[in-house]
Amino acid sequence: MPEDILYSIRNLVVEYTTRAGAVKAVDDVSLDIRRGEILGLVGESGCGKSTLGKALMRLHTGPAKITEGELWFDGRDLMTLPIEEMPEIRGAEIGMVFQDPMTSLNPVQRIIEHLTETIQTHEPEVSDKDARKRSEELIERLGIRKERITEYPHQMSGGMRQRVMISLALSLRAKLVIADEPTTSLDVIVEAKFLDLLKELQKEFGLTILLITHNIGVVAELADRIAVMYAAKMMEVGNVDDVFAHPKHPYTQGLLRSVPNILLDGAELYKMAGAPPDLSHPPSGCRFHTRCPFVMDICREEVPPLEAIEGAQYAACWLYPSVMAKRQEKDHA
Amino acid sequence: MLESTSMGINAIMGDKSISSGELVQVEHLRKHFPLQSGLFATLLTRGQIQAVKAVDDVSFNIHKGEVFGLAGESGSGKSTVGRLVLRLLEPTSGKVIFDGTDLGSLSGEEMRRMRSRMQIVFQDPLASLNPRMTLGMAIDHPARIHLTDLTPDGRRKRVLDILCAVGMNPAKVFYDLYPHQISGGQRQRVVLARALVTNPSLIVADEPIAMADVSVRALLLDLMMKLKEEFNLTYLFITHDLATAKYVCNRIAIMYLGKLCEVGPLADVYQHTIHPYTRALLEAVPVPDPTRRRKEPMPPGEIPNAINPPPGCHFHPRCPIARPNCSVEEPLLRELRPNHFTACHYAEDLLG
């Protein structure tokens, strides 16, 4: 694994067992997260982006199961670790921020207790006094007055609770933070300030952030790279500037044009036909072919692989010669 | 300034309103929700029950045939205004005049009949539809109450026509399906159909597309605009999403802590923004273009508690241009440019 890659997901498959049979919520997805970057993972509801985020920590329980793939984190394949060792990675090395901080924080525990407990669970040698000091410094750095550290979660606003969640990840100096819709329950001004904070933390702590969101605007504001999922498949990956300027996959093209832009005047929104498919009966071939304006015969039959299209921009679409070349290679072999 | 205040915004706008036709006139509307408290607390406070001032002296007009946006953050009171306009909630004080009739003066039966002309569409279509009613039954329900002169066959035809109008083809198939059998975007179409079946003049749309996926939102908005033409509708479009509002609204009102801080034609409010809060709100909207990232700093703090809002201008603790009297004297809506109103003592300095 190259040195600049912090997390490498290889051919990951996550299945849910349902009454209708196995449903693949993540289907053969590969993705690299680089050290120090903010990678925006976008897609519509049900595309598998949150399932992917949870899989990175092997957090699945119940009907969900990782059935194939490798999860290389900082030099180790997490899939080969016994599941009992995962709690040492979760929190300490990979932090997580969810959409609703109220359900992630313990309502009967003060903020300070959340922090000191997190620190001392993973670093038992730290004294109460040091843990407290570290917590206070962190909370202040995140823009919450340190007197408020003795409050309970319900006494804080939504934006503050989300800051507390980030502080839990930072308290153990996590290398990677997976933020799943972190600003979705926040109002725009609070959201804007939280995004500013994430950006500062990325610079200051060299934090790597996987930002999972349905909000294209948030990715454009914050991320360095973007990964686009659709119906359990990775459709396009690239630098934010490249993908927004020249999206390659027809789904990305449609998606970006259907997002309202407050700075544009007199523009019309692109009206994409249809709706995302039901994953218990996914379309054959390319998952997007049922809604694609450029659909060809091959799209209905074969799944296009994710291939480099231009520089560091990847797309899974038969329209591009490099994707087609891969198919011919396979035929020869 | 005081004179124009006592007349109220309706009086100022009144001259134009008669010619263009107002569908809704909201005058000094207030809704205070008393806080629940025990006997002991009531005795302690000598009966002075605290209240959440969800809507506090709000006045505006909605012209016939326009899309009037009402935007603000959560807790600003925008949804309460929507419910007050339909008299789903009784106002603490103030008036709602719908097409010339003061809704407060209507009896229960009269109000019930009036309801066929004013409908609401909520954010979550799954919660708005009864899971045990077929789509046809759901749409038929208001028709059965309000369209009493139609025969059952006539009603069925009307429901099928409305299903077609919202793009649910083939209508006969959808008539017998249940809400769980269709997609989220289709459910919102059914909710629109149910609202339309009684031939209303006004639709209060409370975050109608917020739950829909990005790729289906544009189609839903487009449908709403087509229906507006086809059925001669007027919309009160309640939203937190100022980017979407830009694509649909003719005029917009910005709310903060129960009060309007800016009202005007959309282009004026967006391009010649006056109120510092509106400026911050517009600046905060994420832009789907990485080459135009936001650089402006955001105002400090968060939206305060509506039980004890800051005195004077509610926005003064967060306002970058606040001066001493902002915390004392409450600013009132004033017309600073033609049809463009704002509530800020120093609005003149902000006219650019």
End-to-end distance of chain A: 26 Å
Strand sequence of the main sheet of chain B, in spatial order?
A: 6-7-8-3-9-10-12-11
Could you tell me the strand content of chain B as a percent range?
A: 15-25%
Q: Could you name the ranges of chain B where pLDDT drops below 50 across 5 or more consecutive residues?
A: 1-19
**Biggest beta sheet attributes of chain B:** 8 strands, mixed
What is the element string of chain B, with H for helices and E for strands?
A: HEHEEHEEHEHHHHHEHEHEEHHEEH
Radius of gyration of chain A: 21 Å
Span from first to last CA of chain B? 21 Å
Structure description:
The complex is a heterodimer of chains A (333) and B (352). Chain A is of the alpha/beta class and 333 residues long. In chain A, 33% of the residues lie in helices and 24% in strands. Chain A is built from twelve helices and twelve strands. In chain A, a hairpin with a 2-residue loop joins strand 9 (225-230) and strand 10. The model of chain A has no long low-confidence stretch (mean pLDDT 92). With 352 residues, chain B is of the alpha/beta class. In chain B, 38% of the residues lie in helices and 21% in strands. Chain B is globular. Chain B starts with a helix and ends with a helix. At the A-B interface, helix 7, helix 8, helix 9 and helix 10 of A face helix 9, helix 10, helix 11 and helix 13 of B.
Brief overview, please?
Chain A is an alpha/beta fold and 333 residues long.
Summary keywords:
heterodimer, A: 333 residues, four-stranded antiparallel beta sheet, 12 strands, 33% helix, globular, B: alpha/beta, eight-stranded mixed beta sheet, disordered N terminus
Layout of secondary structure:
The complex is a heterodimer of chains A (333) and B (352).
Chain A: E1 5-18, E2 21-34, E3 38-42, H1 49-55, E4 64-73, E5 76-77, H2 86-89, E6 94-97, H3 101-104, H4 111-122, H5 128-141, H6 158-171, E7 176-180, H7 188-205, E8 208-213, H8 216-222, E9 225-230, E10 233-239, H9 240-245, H10 250-257, H11 297-301, E11 307-310, E12 313-315, H12 321-332
Parallel strand pairs in A: 3-8, 3-9, 6-7, 7-8
Antiparallel strand pairs in A: 1-2, 1-4, 4-5, 9-10, 10-12, 11-12
Helix pairs in contact in A: 4-5, 4-6, 5-6
Chain B: H1 2-20, E1 22-34, H2 39-44, E2 51-63, E3 67-71, H3 78-85, E4 93-98, E5 101-102, H4 108-114, E6 118-121, H5 125-128, H6 135-146, H7 152-165, H8 171-175, H9 184-196, E7 202-206, H10 214-231, E8 234-239, H11 242-248, E9 251-256, E10 259-265, H12 266-271, H13 276-284, E11 334-337, E12 340-342, H14 347-350
Parallel strand pairs in B: 3-8, 3-9, 6-7, 7-8
Antiparallel strand pairs in B: 1-2, 1-4, 4-5, 9-10, 10-12, 11-12
